């Protein structure tokens, strides 16, 4: 039975029983009785609170800022473009972020937090347990070859002449590097490496991979894989001299 048929039957029943208001049926109750799902005037899903809607809009604006900077650069990303991409009016945007600088700072912090979570997860992966140096190299390359580094590079360049931007984003950058290094230090130490060797290995790896990323716009990335392979060979020829690493190497053989 269709919903329209149910509605017609209910109307007829109500007309006959007009005097007995206690027994007047609604289309919805009759439909449920007959096993027919009637259209509901209210959504079955719970309504979001004002705080949830505000948080969702804020996140859309931040993600739109990330996309605009990655696509158009810091200078080319305008608040109008960001608002349009997020599907938010300029007035609503101003309620959350008064100026472009506020949006950019929030976007930088957001990307660093995402990158931190991914790196910390990678540091306890099976690949990290098997070969922490190779896993750290892959994780570092992932960050510096992705859109997040494009954003960081754009913002760092702009921050050189914008003290407010530098002051606001530097703590996020420092927190990112500290958290990532701490997670990977544990991975290296679990594998038997000394803290001194692991610290040196991480520092040299970051410098190498960052250099590849900065030069990619001029020379492309065709040789990246070979450079990274050669780097693992170089590091293998300079093993950790600590007793723990040496013992692990013998047991592995």
Brief summary of the model shown:
Helix content is about 75%, strand content about 0%. With about 250 residues, the protein is mostly helical. Among the domains are: about 5-35; about 100-240, Tetracycline Repressor, domain 2 (Orthogonal Bundle).
Shape designation: elongated
Using only C-alpha atoms, the radius of gyration works out to 29 Å
* Span of the ends, CA to CA: 75 Å
Q: Mean pLDDT score, rounded?
A: 81
What is the CATH architecture descriptor of the domain at 100-239?
A: Orthogonal Bundle
Number of strands: 0
Specify the CATH class of the domain at 100-239. Answer: Mainly Alpha
Low-confidence parts, pLDDT < 50 over ≥5 residues? 1-10, 12-43, 246-253
Structural class: mainly alpha
Please tally the helical runs, counting DSSP H or I stretches of 4 or more residues.
13
Helix content: over 70%
The fold-level CATH name of the domain at 100-239 is Tetracycline Repressor, domain 2
Order of helices and strands: HHHHHHHHHHHHH
Beta-strand share of residues:
under 5%
Sheet bearing the most strands, described?
none
């Amino acid at each position: 039975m269709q919903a329209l048929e149910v509605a017609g039957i209910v109307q007829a029943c109500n007309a006959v029983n007009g005097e007995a208001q206690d027994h007047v049926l609604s289309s919805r109750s009759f439909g449920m009785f007959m096993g027919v799902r009637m259209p509901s005037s209210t959504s079955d899903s719970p309504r979001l609170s004002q705080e949830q809607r505000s948080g969702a809009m804020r996140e859309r604006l931040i993600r739109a800022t990330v996309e605009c900077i990655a696509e158009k650069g810091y200078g080319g990303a305008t608040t109008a473009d960001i608002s349009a991409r997020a599907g938010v009016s300029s007035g609503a945007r101003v309620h959350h972020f008064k100026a472009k600088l506020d949006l950019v700072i929030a976007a930088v912090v957001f990307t660093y937090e995402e990158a931190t979570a991914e790196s910390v997860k990678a540091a306890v992966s099976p690949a990290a347990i098997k070969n922490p140096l190779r896993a750290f190299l892959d994780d570092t390359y992932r960050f510096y070859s992705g859109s997040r580094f494009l954003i960081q590079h754009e913002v760092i360049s702009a921050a050189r002449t914008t003290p407010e931007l530098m002051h606001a984003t530097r703590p996020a950058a420092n927190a990112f590097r500290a958290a990532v290094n701490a997670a990977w230090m544990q991975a290296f130490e679990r594998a038997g490496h000394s803290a001194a060797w692991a610290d040196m290995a991480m520092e040299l790896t970051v410098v190498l991979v960052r250099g590849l990323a900065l030069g990619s716009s001029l020379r492309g990335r065709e040789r990246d894989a070979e450079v990274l392979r050669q780097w693992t060979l170089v590091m293998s020829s300079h093993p950790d001299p600590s007793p723990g690493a040496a013992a692990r190497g013998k047991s592995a053989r």
